[in-house]
Design a protein that fits this description.
- The protein is α/β, with parallel strands linked by helices.
- It has one domain (10-208, 244-298): 3-Layer(aba) Sandwich (Rossmann fold).
- It has helices at 25-36, 48-61, 77-86, 115-138, 170-194, 213-220, 224-236, 241-244, 246-253, 286-300; strands at residues 16-20, 40-45, 67-71, 94-97, 143-147, 200-204, 262-267, 271-276.
- It has an eight-stranded mixed beta sheet, sandwiched between helices.
- The protein is globular and about 50 Å long.
- The N and C termini lie far apart (38 Å).
Length: 309
């Protein structure tokens, strides 16, 4: 994987991709580079205005890009179901579960779930289940890539307190939601393998990449000084969104990506070319992943259908 860049992305002509959170940051770069290589890309975005602006910019940067905007709010399960139901394509080669929120003050979604757990995990769990038949229909080469974080090491999910009702700590909640991403990928990989599916489930993380993700929570609380400090760190320490998207693009397109691979930056989980990343042992726990899966089906009302069931 030494030195892997966007120039190494295989041709994507004829492939169909959905990228969530594609209006900014690594989601935007991921969608743009897939389109540049010939994929038809659906931009799943919550904010229509920002989504349209991203679509227009993408067409300017990649003339002839086959992209279109579709409304998707992962914090609203009705929106997730509507997005899946209205997607006209009968097959899907690639689903990149990229959208996320980070270290927000305690908030509840319209469905009553803790915002970080709901947006980062439950919404993507439901979306993947609803789109899985179309991924199966694509045949060999179909992939689900879920974007986690090196900060998943902050903690794993607590099955007794999935919503952190007992004591909410924003960074722990973020870390748990990112561990949930990896537990989801682990269990999805196990189940796909058991049914003999050609669909591959992998995960990625961007390292420390400069996006608006780090400042959104601070802006919600009007913590201007802290927001400026984070913006300074982003400018001086973080790698760019362009580089932060490389692990996602590698996991989505590179040959040889295996079930349950976790791809991240080479240097200290921070920056550099993509490689297989270290991960917390708890994200490979079969019992924990199965328990989270069962809870996720119950909470979302989305039950996956498996061949042979």
């Amino acid at each position: 994987m030494n030195g892997w860049t966007v120039s190494d992305i295989p041709g994507q002509s004829g492939r169909i991709a959905v990228v969530t959170g594609a209006n900014s940051g690594i989601g935007y770069v991921t969608a743009r580079e897939l389109a540049r290589q010939g994929a038809r890309v659906v931009l799943g975005c919550r904010d229509v205005t920002r989504g349209k602006a991203a679509e227009e910019l993408m067409r300017e940067q990649v003339p002839g890009a086959d992209v279109r905007l579709a409304v998707l709010d992962l914090a609203d399960l009705a929106s997730v179901r509507a997005f899946a139901a209205e997607l006209p394509e009968e097959r899907l080669d690639l689903l990149v579960n990229n959208a996320g929120v980070m270290a927000l003050p305690q908030r509840r979604t319209v469905d009553g779930f803790e915002m970080q757990f709901a947006t980062n995990h439950l919404g993507h769990f439901a979306l993947t289940g609803l789109l899985l038949p179309r991924l199966r229909a694509a045949g060999p080469g179909a992939r689900v890539v879920t974007v986690s974080s090196g900060l998943h090491f902050l903690g794993t999910v607590d099955p007794r307190d999935l919503q952190m009702d007992h004591r909410y700590r924003r960074w722990i909640a973020y870390g748990r939601s990112k561990s949930a991403n990896l537990l989801f990928t682990h269990e999805l990989s196990r189940r796909l393998t058991a049914e003999g599916s050609a669909v591959v489930a992998a995960a990625a993380h961007p390292g420390y990449a400069a996006t608006n993700l780090q400042t959104a929570g601070l802006r919600m609380e009007e913590r201007a000084v802290a927001e400026r400090a984070v913006e300074l760190l982003n400018r001086t320490v973080a790698q760019s969104a362009e580089d932060g998207a490389l692990p996602s693009l590698y996991a989505a397109t590179a040959p040889g990506v295996r079930q349950d691979d976790f791809i991240g930056p080479r240097v200290l989980l921070w920056r550099g070319s993509p490689t297989r990343s270290v991960r917390a042992r708890w994200t490979l726990d079969d019992r924990a992943s199965a328990g989270l899966w069962a809870a996720s089906e119950r909470l979302t009302g989305v039950t996956y259908a498996w061949n042979g069931d």
